[in-house]
Amino acid sequence: MKTSKIILTLSFLCAILFASAQDQAALQMEAETIAQKAICVLHGTSGNDISGIITFTTSSSGVLVEADVYGLTPGKHGFHIHEFGDCSAADGSSAGGHFNPEHMKHGGPQNVVRHEGDLGNLEADQTGRARMSNLDPAISLSGPHTIIGYSVVIHAQEDDLISQPTGNAGARVACGVIGIAK
Ligand code: CU
Ligand code: ZN
């Protein structure tokens, strides 16, 4: 009598555990499939009147990165995903270094050897507006290397795509956190 009660209780517990494991797997899948699009709203760091939006859209051959930024000085500006989604510091330093989960060397978006966060440069026109559209095969909105929750930083100078570890792009003039978009 006692043994059958124990077996009954155990099988009941097993059923609960199994069900919750299934729920968790389903939730995880849902979280992974939700992020077809992400957005980053940029704000200028201290003393920089910069604004802009970067969108990231998943496609079969990579992530389409589209940028529209205002208030830059004319010319090229280093443009990266950084390792922390923290733009709280006045100079943007809280965003940390380049997003580099594979521990690679710094490069450009067209290089095989690059940080995942190396998006290259934005080029602003005479009015300070920079628009860009690039399909990036190295970044992802899901999985272990998702860029969601990290930050985008724009720099005062051009990224030379060679100098280690950051392309010698100078001060951080704008920062924004990457979040899931509809
Ligand atoms: Cu940077
Ligand atoms: Zn880099």
Number of E-type strands: 8
Content of β-strand: 25-35%
Portion of residues within helices:
10-25%
Average pLDDT taken over every residue: 89
Distance between the termini: 57 Å
- Spatial ordering of strands, largest sheet: 5-4-7-8-1-2-3-6
Outline:
This protein is α+β, with helices and mostly antiparallel strands and 182 residues long. Helix content is 18%, strand content 35%. The chain has an 8-stranded antiparallel β-sheet, with no helix packed on it.
What does this molecule look like?
This protein is an alpha+beta fold. It folds into 2 domains: 1-34; 37-180, Superoxide dismutase, copper/zinc binding domain (Immunoglobulin-like). The chain has one helix at residues 2-34; strands at 37-44, 51-59, 62-70, 75-82, 118-124, 130-136, 151-155, 172-181. Bound molecules: copper (II) ion and zinc ion.
